[in-house]
Amino acid sequence: MTSPAARVPRHIAIIMDGNGRWAQQRHRPRIIGHRAGARAVKSCVEFCLDNGVQALTLFAFSSENWNRPSDEVGGLMKLFLGALEREVDELHRLGARLRFIGERARFAPEILARMQAAESLTAGNARLQLSIAASYGGRQDIAQAARALAEEVAAGRLRADQIDESAISARVALADLPPPDLFIRTGGELRISNFLLWQLAYTELWFTDTLWPDVDAATLRRALDDYAGRERRFGLTSAQVAGHATGGTT
Ligand code: FPP
């Protein structure tokens, strides 16, 4: 029998969609929805800490989001900076290790410096690995891994025939974490939208119509309960998976 603890996803990855619609429903500017979304991030982090989830990766800003109207991009940057100024000490106190994945060079120096400071401050924490995907794209992530491998081959440190799945896995973002067990997308769209493409290969997918700012512990509990009832086969048969679970060989 699999123990209840083994049924808690070690790593959850979330596309936090629906902030704009949440604001529109209230006839408010979109940035109000993003602010409400930031509050939902806090309760999601608390939920993960309370439930023994070891890693949480949040898609805060995609490579494509730079093309949104400039007032929305500017509002989001202000929101990120404010969150970095206000929340990092508390996250540190709670034992969260914070890191950022994506093309960080595109951010303003002020934000960049805060990101680096948050990563250094929290580097030794182990209770929750909290990763924020910012200016992130899954294809870009795979492309930079390919570029790194090509450079190693060109430098004579690696042979082309040594490039296998594990070589790529070691060079994409979050290489030191287990890949996400559970992917959640809120806001009703049924897409992966260029998030963690390599890392999500065997991840269980869970979608909800709930808009991100309305997500609370009850929503996340439903996702975890659904996950706990699923059989993960990783390409094996059910019988093989049952053999693994009881310690048998297949
Ligand atoms: C998608 O909703 C959400 C975003 C592009 C931004 C996510 C940002 C936050 C949740 C706020 C703060 C985050 C951190 C980590 C402090 P959308 O705007 O595409 O919604 P829509 O589909 O309803 O328009």
TrEMBL record:
Keyword Cell membrane tagged: no
Superkingdom in the source lineage: Bacteria
Free-text cofactor note: Binds 2 magnesium ions per subunit.
Active-site residues per Swiss-Prot or TrEMBL entry: D17, N65
Top class in the EC scheme: transferase
Cofactor or coenzyme needed: Mg(2+)
Pfam families with a match to the protein in the record: Prenyltransf
GO BP term, example: peptidoglycan biosynthetic process
Keywords per UniProt: Cell shape, Cell wall biogenesis/degradation, Magnesium, Metal-binding, Peptidoglycan synthesis, Transferase
A Gene Ontology molecular function term of the record: magnesium ion binding
EC numbers: 2.5.1.31
UniProt binding sites for substrate: 18-22, 30, 34, 62-64, 66, 68, 185, 191-193
Binding residue positions for Mg(2+): D17, E204
GO CC annotation, single: cytosol
Database matches in InterPro entries: UPP_synth-like, UPP_synth-like_CS, UPP_synth-like_sf
Family: Belongs to the UPP synthase family.
Subunit and interaction comment: Homodimer.
Protein name, entry field: Ditrans,polycis-undecaprenyl-diphosphate synthase ((2E,6E)-farnesyl-diphosphate specific)
